[in-house]
Structure formats: C-alpha cells, structure tokens
Write a structure and sequence with these properties.
This protein is an alpha/beta fold and 364 residues long. The protein has a single domain, classed as TIM Barrel (Alpha-Beta Barrel). It contains 17 helices and eight strands. Helix 9 links the parallel strand 4 and strand 5.
Length: 364
C-alpha cells in the first residue's frame, strides 16, 4: 500500500496557509462525502497499472485531467460528472474496493474528522467489479470496520441510488441496506441529475426505507431548482438535503422548507466547479447561513475530483464567504446535531466538539 495520504490535494492553495493548519487541528464532522469521488491519486496510478486500464498513461499527470477538475475544465455539471466515468473504472475487485474504502477512512481521520457519514453507490461498484450488490456492500462495511479499529474516527454508511436507474433497482438496494442496519448502514440517498429524472417514482422505495428505520437524504437543489428540494422533502421524506443551495432562488419555498427544520449538506467547492454557483464569493451559503444558521453544514462532496478536503472547504468559507472561526465551529456543531445517529450519540458528539472548541457556542 502506498504511503502517501490525501495526495489529491496537490495544488490546493490558501491565502493564509497557517489557517489551514488551525482548522485541520479542530475536530470535524463530514456528512456528505462520496466514496467514488475520494480516491488517492497514487492509489489510482497503482491500480491503473496493475489492471492495465484504458488511460493515456499510468502516471498521475497523464490521467489527472480525467479524474480531477483542472483549470482547463469548464465550470459545468457535464465537466464535473464526466470524472466519474473514469473513476468508476478503478473499482475492479474486492481487493481494490477494500483498499480504497480503508484509505478514505484513514485520510478523513488524518485531517481530524472524528465522525463521517460515507456514501456510496452499490450498483456502480457492482457493475465495475462484476459482483453482486450484497457482496460489494459487505466489502465496504468490512473495510470501514477495519479502518475504524486502526484510526480515531467513527463512520456510518449511506447507500445511494441513481435517478436514471429504475426504482426497482433502488428498491433492491434499499432491501439490502435494511438487512445491514446493524452493520452501520444508517441512511439511503438518491443522486443524479434531478433536472432530467424526477424523484417521485422512487416514493415507494423511500417509504420502505423510512418504515424500516433508515434515514433519508436526497440530492436536490443542485442540478435543478427549488421545486426539486420541495419534492425531496414533501414527497420522498428527505430528512436532510444534499446541496439544496438553489432553493434560495425562491425565497418562499426556501422558508417553507427551512421552517420544517431540514438541514443542508452544502459542498461549496463542487458547487463552484460544477457551475451551480458563479464563484466562491457568490456562493449562496453565506445568505443561507445568515437566515438559518442552525441548518447549514459544510462538506467536501468528492475530495479527489475537487482537489480539496473538508479542512479546505472550511478555510475557503472563511477566506471567501466571511465565515468566522465561531461560524466554522457552529457548522460543525450543526453537523453533530443532524448526524444520522441516535439522540444520545449525537449529544455525546456535540459535547466532544464543545470541549475541544474550549469556548462552547451557546445553543441557538
């Protein structure tokens, strides 16, 4: 196994490098990170060479533009999503899935993330590896458990389904997830292009998840406008919104959803890179946080695609969006409050953060 960690951050720069180290030292919570978008680049190079993948070459510089946003990429959904086409080629075997999953957890622990909800798409992993959904889910579960034994981090899993696939596929995946709730699967997710594929056909799938005690988070308000967020909450029963930032385009609907106390999993850099926000300074989280500070969390989404980690995201919010250190602490406490954990575990997580922050923030 390679000895580099978080090498996907190559080229990430900040106005104040010491601020990065200060934020890195804080205990943090990550609620929205995709397994398929969090591979180490050096690991990809080794896998590509071993499996002779069809790439321009097997050095990082030769394939970087296929898996990571570069300055030459247009800021568009197409450019961002195109990276997954190449990334998913790497999940070729049990050994690869095990290694990648373990390294993702290790990398999160290395930047002092103390709790993470890692989401993955079993159908994507199964398609590439040629194995069944139960097998790939069990491989991810086993790798996470092993990594937690070796590193100071607590991890839960969210299984995701794609909007462009049939609800029947989602129903199958949810059934398998229900059987593995005792192994750390806590929630299900619907991802993909909400502008082309509505979520309503999946209602019965998410009703089934709710009935079994699984939590629900839905990607919405990213590729489509405010109505996709309303559908996610009021039709599919979303308890959190993945992204959700375009909801602010309709203030009436924004307040309607927020008054239902639905938290947002905001991913600033990926929103800018995919064209959802025009720039870091123009990102809507500043206004969203001003209006509903208790509902905002900040997350990394796809670290290897975006060449960032969670610490970077928090620093960028301070450098470009006028977030203060207390604001950063607040969004981390928010994440503790809305984590898909039993109430006693959420309270314990919050107390742990407050103790580390020295001066606890007052309850809102």
């Amino acid at each position: 196994m390679g000895n580099m960690t978080m090498d996907y951050r190559q080229g990430t720069m900040h106005k104040n490098p010491s601020l990065y180290e200060q934020i890195k030292a804080l205990p943090k919570i990550e609620l929205h990170r995709h397994l398929e978008g969090s591979l180490r680049l050096n690991t990809m190079a080794e896998i590509a060479a071993e499996h002779q993948l069809e790439l321009p070459g097997y050095t990082i510089d030769e394939f970087r533009s296929l898996v990571q946003i570069t300055p030459e990429d247009k800021r568009s959904a197409h450019a961002f999503l195109s990276k997954f086409k190449t990334l998913r080629q790497f999940f070729r075997s049990h050994e690869v899935i095990d290694r990648i999953t373990y390294e993702i957890v290790a990398d999160a622990a290395a930047e002092n993330i103390v709790y993470m909800e890692l989401r993955f798409t079993p159908m994507a992993l199964a398609s590439e590896s040629g194995h069944s959904l139960p097998e790939v889910i069990d491989w991810v579960i086993a790798a996470v458990k092993r990594a937690m034994m070796d590193h100071p981090i607590d991890v839960r899993l969210i299984t995701s389904m794609n909007r462009h696939e049939t609800p029947a596929v989602g129903d199958w995946a949810v059934g398998i997830a229900i059987e593995r709730m005792k192994d750390g699967v806590v929630a299900v997710d619907l991802a993909g292009d909400e502008s082309q594929f509505p979520g309503k056909p999946f209602k019965y799938v998410f009703d089934k998840a709710h009935d079994a005690g699984l939590k629900v988070t839905i990607h919405a308000g990213e590729w489509a406008g405010p109505s996709s967020c309303v559908e996610a909450v009021e039709v599919l029963g979303a308890e959190r919104l993945g992204h959700g930032v375009r909801l602010l385009e309709d203030k009436t609907l924004f307040h309607r959803v927020c008054r239902q106390n639905i938290p947002f999993e905001v991913c600033v850099t990926s929103n800018v890179q995919s064209g959802v926000a025009d720039s870091w300074t123009a990102h809507p989280i500043r206004e969203m946080f001003r209006l509903y500070p208790d509902l905002m969390t900040i997350n990394s989404d796809d670290p290897s695609i975006s060449a960032i980690d969670l610490t970077d995201e928090l620093v960028l919010a301070m450098e470009h969006l006028e977030f203060t250190l207390d604001d950063v602490k607040q969004v981390m406490l928010n994440a503790a409050n809305v984590a898909f954990l039993p109430e006693a575990e959420r309270a314990s997580l919050r107390r742990r953060l407050e103790a580390a922050f020295i001066t606890p923030l007052a309850d809102a």
